[in-house]
Amino acid sequence: VLDCNAPWEGNNCGYFVLLNDQEQFRLYYNGYNYGVDLDAKPIRGKVRICYAESRDGKTFRRVPVHKVPFWGTTDNNILFNTIRDNMYFFKDTNPDCAPEALYKGLAEEKQTLWLYESADGVNFERKRMLVDDGAYDSMNVAFWDEITEQYFLFYRGIHGEGTVDGKWTVQQDNARHNNVIRDVRVRRSKDFITWSEPQMIRFDPERDDLELYVNQVQPYYRAKHMFIGFPTRYADRYEDAQNFAYLPDKERRDRYIRAEGRTGTAMTDAVVMTSRDGLYFRRTEEAFLTPGIEREGNWYYGDCYFAYGMAETDGDRPGSPREISMYAGDGARFGPVKLCRYAIRLDGFFSWRCDYQPGMVVTKPLIFDGGHLSINFATSALGHVRIRLLSEDGTPIEGFDSGKLFGDSVDRPVDFAGSLSTLAGKPIRMEISMSDADLYSFRFTPKVNFR
Prior knowledge:
By secondary structure, the protein is mostly beta strands. It has two domains: 2-345, Tachylectin-2, Chain A (5 Propeller), CATH 2.115.10; 355-445, Hypothetical Protein Tm1070, Chain: A. It is 4% helix and 43% strand. β6 and β7 form a beta hairpin. It is globular. The chain starts with a strand and ends in a 6-residue tail after the last strand. The mean pLDDT is 95.
């Protein structure tokens, strides 16, 4: 969707941020040049924060902002060239937000986090230090949560032997390999000024204490009482050195290893995590996105960094439903980076999956509003999903058996003989029987939404 091949964008574009803003998508990202020469000496350029837009989420164009000179001209899309590592942006949806602070940016400087503000999303002014209790050398994200009416800030900290107050020491920062753990922390605020005490996010059920790079936590736009994140898992595989001779780009990888160690030996992929309160998360143990089949430029530290944000876009085939588009850069360090679009069905991050042999699940008691039920599901030609409604004690309620449903739809109405509105406001259970099928989500609404 975007080939980052402008001369100021370098070979290592990343930290993409997508904002869905008034029928257009704003895209912010780093332009950066990084490599090693033939003598294994690191080559580093200046970070440039760049800007692009899209109407459909499928193609992006650079927007000239005429702010920062490059090669003697300001005819480029560079917003900043004074940021050390990366910059996060969001549109503040707090109804009390001042117009001049509608768009906010966060950037790290010397292990403190600084706030930038803008009225138009392009012209930003540095305002003040926001917080200073973390390392912040990754993307740190914030947003206004309309359900709890407060801001959340998710940011980088570190813990482990020798760490001090969640920050890097000079020795750790310069080490070729180290044993500290990069983590994700959270703070809350009603006014974006006074913040709660920092807490490291927790996992339920308990998970291995893995290193997490970007966290990408955001309210899920289709169920705003839920947070969803796509953290990048970081693993320095230097103890498994027998693999490096067979991974792509052996000669260049050897130079990275000689130059800085972990730059050539660390690997990254992405997982999914969800939360209802922003503190306790459920995190998958299996990868959601992997580096993929070995080819030039992959299986490196830098793979599988999802852009922050997602877009709901039209399906590519006539008559197909809308889908969720997510984005990640391809070819970091070997640029120019290409920003690639990944498509997933609405609510398709998880499913209740049943193989051909029939299975059944019964929900906890739930109370709903509305008079119609629809499901997001997929079956084989022989498979089915069947829904019966039960009383709170598990007794089937007469007139509420869907029969066997088959097909593949993100919004299939579920018909009952009885009137569903008569059960609204009362605790019920759903008995869901399945065969060779996936159930992604269900919802109760006032009316049927035919597509």
